[in-house]
Amino acid sequence: MDRTVIAYVIYLVVSIGLTIWVARTLSRNGRIFLADVLHGNEKLADAVNHLLVVGFYLVNLGFVALYLSGDDTITDTRQIFEALSTKLGVVLLVLGVMHLGNVYVLNRIRRRGVMEREQLPPVAPQGWVGTQGA
What we know:
Blueprint: H1 3-37, H2 42-66, H3 77-119
């Protein structure tokens, strides 16, 4: 079998496996964060979580597919490792950037919700207070 094809197969298996693992980890651990951002609305948190996971899969697997082709033909084992380290390193960086982007956006939404909650007085106004000494 051609060494280039071997490198492609290894790249796809590892990249898809990493994408699935990261998506499941983010989904499982991010659900609590989403519930807080969405003020305890569990159904909405689950729906948003699912949509984020689908988007995460589409973007990352699309990138993995686009980044599959290589410029050079691989002729020895050393070149397999070099090509895989470059390709997998870039995939890991893209996964990390996607994760940080999601956290940033959700944190902004959470901050806005916290600020809105803090603007409401803890107790409703009871009436007017007159001026003293007038």
